[in-house]
Amino acid sequence: MTPDAIFLIATYGLVPFWLLLVVLPRWSGTQFLVHSALLPLIFGCLYTYYLAVASFGGGQPEGASFGTLAGVMIFFQMPEAALAGWLHYLLFDLFIGAWEARDAQRRGMSHWLVIPCLVFTWLAGPLGLLLYIVLRAVSGKGGWRLQPADTPA
């Protein structure tokens, strides 16, 4: 399968998982599909494969490296490297969104307030996490601590 095909399958394949987090966060299917190790295992394997191909498969452009911004930009010119980076973003954003949903449930936060945070986490990763942390702080449901609700200080 081509990197383009994997890109499309991964990108659009995660939409149902995000919709489950937004629409049915407490459903047992959401718990199984989104909060299990299934997606991290799949995406972790894909990521590892494409990162290895990009890093060790030969054909790296001159100057590709992780030591400078220019080197990273050159590295990500390779489709396999760009796909590995995209898979990384997709998985980590979903992982953070799933944590936000679980954390909000444990803290008794209104899911309606969490939905915008989830949408921003889906579309802009760190911005959504920032919004969720601010929401926790201003709502008095956890403040700046990131431990689970039932963890002592």
From TrEMBL:
* Keyword field contains Membrane: yes
TM spans, by residue? 6-25, 32-52, 64-91, 112-135
Record key words, sorted:
Membrane, Transmembrane, Transmembrane helix
Fetch the Pfam families from UniProt. ABA4-like
InterPro entries in the cross-refs: ABA4-like
Would the keyword GTP-binding be found if you checked this record's keyword annotation? no
Signal peptide (from-to) = none
Can you say what this protein is called?
Conserved protein
> Which organism was this protein described from?
Tepidicaulis marinus
